[in-house]
Amino acid sequence: MVRERRDLYSLPDAPLASRCYSHSKVETDEEFDARWVTYFSKPDIDAWELKKGMNTLIGYDLVPEPKIVDSALRACRRLNDLASAIRILEAVKDKSGPHKDIYPYLIQELKPTLTELGISTPEELGMDKL
Amino acid sequence: MSYSKMSLAKPVMRGLLGKRLRFHLPIAFALSLMAAAAFKFGVTEPRKRAYADFYKNYDATKEFNNMREAGIFESVRPTGK
């Protein structure tokens, strides 16, 4: 099956996100978060959209909010993609960079979801060590 | 749910790279400019001055004749030969 032209207009791409000093409207953090939660909440989201969404999200200068990660993890569940779920956790840890307080907070907020969906963290799997 | 320790407060999660760049880029530019200035005034300007001083009262003909007498040329022999 060939994907000729992906409709990129359905992506919550945000050239307006974060800081935009042009005269276009600036989106609030809440609107940004809501758009991404909606994006991953699409019931029939496909693998490509999941990957594209995550790659776009990781490109931003922010660590995704727990509710966005939660939505993405549930999309992984719908796609039966445990590997991507764990990868998402690795990705947000990496996005935190030197700020070591962000990842523990994220895991704390996501613990109920991780338990519900049966997702192990990279640490539990011993995958965080080289 | 048992609270074995206080739940973590929400850290700042946005704009971390921007903040880092706003702090480090001006310093990086300042240090680079200072390095360039130091090299200019510590190396290139003294070098240019040395060359200028050398050639200020340089007599090419006199130097040529000295070299000629020293016998280093093949195209002209020292006077007297």
Give the tags.
heterodimer, A: 130 residues, mainly alpha, B: 81 residues, 2 helices, 0% strand, rod-shaped, ubl conjugation (chain A), membrane (chain A), metal ion binding (chain A), metal-binding (chain A), phosphoprotein (chain A)
Give the gist of this structure.
The complex is a heterodimer of chains A (130) and B (81). Chain A is an all-alpha fold and 130 residues long.
Plain-language structure description:
The complex is a heterodimer of chains A (130) and B (81). Chain A is built from five helices and no strands. Chain A is mostly helical and 130 residues long. In chain A, helix 1 runs parallel beside helix 3 (66-78), helix 3 (66-78) runs antiparallel to helix 4 (82-95) and helix 3 (66-78) runs parallel beside helix 5. The model of chain A is unreliable at 1-5 (pLDDT under 50). Chain B is mostly helical. Chain B is 64% helix and 0% strand. Chain B contains two helices and no strands. The termini of chain B are far apart.
Please outline the helices and strands:
The complex is a heterodimer of chains A (130) and B (81).
Chain A lengths: L28 H13 L5 H12 L7 H13 L3 H14 L6 H16 L13
Helix pairs in contact in A: 1-3, 3-4, 3-5
Chain B lengths: L15 H41 L3 H11 L11
- Structural classification of chain B: mainly alpha
What's the oligomerization state? heterodimer
Main beta sheet of chain A: none
- Low-confidence segments of chain A, given as residue ranges, are 1-5
DSSP, total strands of chain B: 0
Largest interface: A-B, 16 and 12 residues
Gross morphology of chain B is rod-shaped
Portion of residues within helices of chain A: 40-55%
Instruction: Give the helices and strands of chain B as they follow along the chain.
Output: HH
